[in-house]
Write a structure and sequence with these properties.
- The chain is mainly beta and about 200 residues long.
- About 10% of the residues lie in helices and about 40% in strands.
- The protein is built from two helices and 13 strands; from the N terminus they run E-E-E-E-E-E-E-E-E-E-E-E-E-H-H.
- Strands 3-2-5-6 form a four-stranded antiparallel β-sheet, with no helix packed on it. The chain has a four-stranded antiparallel β-sheet with strand order 10-9-12-13, with no helix packed on it. A three-stranded antiparallel β-sheet has the order 7-8-11, with no helix packed on it.
- A hairpin with a 2-residue loop joins strand 12 and strand 13.
- The chain starts with a strand and ends in a 7-residue tail after the last helix.
Length: about 200
């Protein structure tokens, strides 16, 4: 707050009858600073000046305080999944980060799947059991902010590996390997092995 006053006088500013700042006028002007609070909104402001002799002027009307609420933009939330690709029908952990004390709500369509208030470190967690596989779009809401997160949900049997065929060799095949041309029976083909020692 600034204005004019007798040089060297002490200027006092009150809001609603409570002193909020005091300063010595220099060169016939003064500037007095204080921290406004929402509780001051609408209260009358008065200014007085006291000279070196101790004489105090009548209070000047400074009007009424108008205090605007501070608009705090919530921290944009983030979510991560464990496992990174949840499995249909199985519980998955959702880790949520954002601003400390914020309430985060996660929905799938019209269904709410998570509601958590973040701790002093801006962290929280909850569980989710996806119903079916596929691409799932989740909406994360904190205050007026909304963030969309798409996650891939795997089928429950995606972790099962198909066992590759090992194959087999019958005695006739072995006979063909060792006996050369024409051997299809096991005995005849294996019998040709004796000629290798002659």
């Amino acid at each position: 707050m600034s204005g004019s006053a007798e040089a060297g006088s002490t200027v006092t500013v009150t809001v609603g009858g409570d002193e909020v700042c005091s300063v010595t006028a220099t060169g016939g002007t003064f500037t007095c600073s204080f921290d406004a609070t929402e509780a001051m909104d609408g209260k009358p402001v008065a200014v007085t000046a006291t000279d070196a002799a101790g004489n105090t002027s009548p209070a000047a009307d400074g009007g009424s305080m108008e205090v605007k609420s501070e608009v705090v933009t919530p921290t944009e939330p983030t979510i991560t999944f464990d496992p990174a690709q949840p499995v249909a029908g199985e519980k998955a952990q959702i880790a949520v980060t954002g601003g400390a004390g914020e309430q985060v709500v996660i929905t799938h369509g019209e269904t709410e799947i998570c509601r958590v208030t973040l701790d002093q470190d801006g962290k929280g967690s909850c569980e989710w059991t996806p119903a079916a596989q596929g691409q799932v779009s989740l909406t994360v809401t904190v205050g007026d902010q909304m963030v969309t997160k798409t996650v891939t949900v795997r089928a429950a049997d995606d972790d099962d590996d198909d066992n590759p065929s090992t194959g087999s060799l019958d005695m006739g095949s072995l006979g063909g390997l060792f006996g050369g041309a024409g051997g299809t029976g096991s005995s005849g083909s294996l019998g040709s092995l004796s000629s290798l020692g002659s």
